[in-house]
From TrEMBL:
Subunit-level organization: Tetramer of two alpha and two beta subunits.
Name used for this protein in its record: Phenylalanine--tRNA ligase alpha subunit
Gene3D superfamilies, A to Z: Bira Bifunctional Protein, Domain 2
Family: Belongs to the class-II aminoacyl-tRNA synthetase family. Phe-tRNA synthetase alpha subunit type 1 subfamily.
Catalytic activity: tRNA(Phe) + L-phenylalanine + ATP = L-phenylalanyl-tRNA(Phe) + AMP + diphosphate + H(+)
Major enzyme class: ligase
């Protein structure tokens, strides 16, 4: 064996050992690729070592060639094995990083619910639609005509004082009752009519446990041939029984500009009479104002304060609780 041959053999052995060690300790696929280029690439160490082959005696070349192939195969083999291992590790790491922990607590989403005023309105309207009434709504800003004049409030009648409200600079006002909507409805529809109107209303009132300057009403109106006070009384009785159960009720005479005769209705509640609504037969002047013939048609109407109904239903002690959005209160409904 020549001197060059044993040199080359030693060099190839060292290359194998060094390469195998480097491959074994590679930590990433990038590092592994760099090692492949370094050892097996065109200008890699193995190619360079083989550059010395030309100087060998021809009879020794096959042996060195075989050794070279052996080293090449060994390194290639290690590279393949290591690549498979690193790829598997990479997938495993990715799987672990992206694992969904189904035992983790969910995100808290607060659950809203119906406000007691809205559920009271819904409940009352369910009863009236069951009796054949249509639901109608209208604007909160109104003209003097719809709020007062068409409803038989004479310009200087003291009843206007009891329904003082906010007047806008253009002469319009914030409605004091939802009766404005029934006037508009009658202008658009011929009798017979049955209409129920929920809505927000405004009055100049000093706020206390049972009064609010902004509150809600539901008003009903029926106009037909031959309607009498008995029809009104029967309707009120059916409504209050559906709303509160079989409670004793009482009609007291009252006055409203838009109804004649008029009454207020009390419900027996906790051993005393509690006023829950006003009602009456529609004043002929109101029918005339919308072009209905009061000699042919009669009507009855009633108005309920929604807050009052809700307070009776849920035994709420102060009307202001319905407005100040205290969740400790609202969560009870
Ligand atoms: C038309 C004609 C008549 C509706 C009526 C009342 C009596 C009444 C109050 C109840 C409590 C208002 O919210 S409250 O303060 N309402 O007393 N409302 S009769 O009468 C009408 C409605 C429309 C065209």
């Amino acid at each position: 064996m020549t001197h060059q041959t044993s040199d080359l053999e030693a060099q190839l052995d060292a290359l194998r050992q060094e390469g195998q060690q480097a491959i074994a300790t590679a930590e990433t696929l990038e590092q592994l690729d760099q090692l492949r280029v370094k050892y097996l690439g065109k200008k890699g160490q193995l190619s360079q070592a083989l550059g010395g082959m030309g100087k060998l005696p021809p009879e020794e070349r096959p042996r060195i060639g075989a050794l070279t192939n052996e080293v090449k195969e060994a390194l290639q083999n290690d590279l393949d094995t290591k690549r498979t291992a690193l790829q598997a590790a990479q997938i495993q790491a990715q799987l672990e990083a992206e694992t969904l922990d189904v035992t983790m607590p969910g995100m808290y989403r607060p659950q809203g619910r119906m406000h007691p005023l809205n559920s009271t309105i819904d409940r009352a309207l369910d009863i009236f639609t069951g009796l054949g009434y249509t639901v109608a709504q209208g604007p909160e800003m109104e003209t003097d005509y719809y709020n007062f004049e068409a409803l038989n409030f004479q310009p200087d009648h003291p009843a206007r004082d009891m329904q003082d409200t906010l007047y806008l600079t253009d002469g319009n006002l914030l409605r004091t009752h939802t009766s404005t909507v029934q006037i508009r409805y009658m202008e658009e529809n011929d009798p017979p009519i049955r209409v129920a109107v929920p809505g927000r209303v405004y009055r100049r009132d000093t706020v206390d446990a049972t009064h609010s300057a902004v509150f809600h009403q539901i008003e009903i109106l029926a106009v037909d041939e031959g309607l009498t006070f008995s029809d009104l009384r029967g309707t009120i009785k059916v409504f209050l029984e559906a709303m509160f159960g079989d409670v004793p009720i009482r009609f007291r005479p009252s006055f409203f500009p838009f109804t004649e005769p008029s009454a207020e209705v009390d419900v027996q509640w906790k051993g005393r009479w509690l006023e829950v609504l006003g009602c009456g037969m529609v004043d002929p002047n109101v029918l005339k104002a919308v072009g209905y013939d009061p000699e042919v048609y009669t009507g009855f109407a009633a108005g309920f304060g929604v807050e009052r109904l809700a307070m009776v239903l849920h035994q709420i002690d102060d009307i202001r609780r319905l407005y100040n959005s205290d969740l400790r209160f609202l969560r009870q409904f």
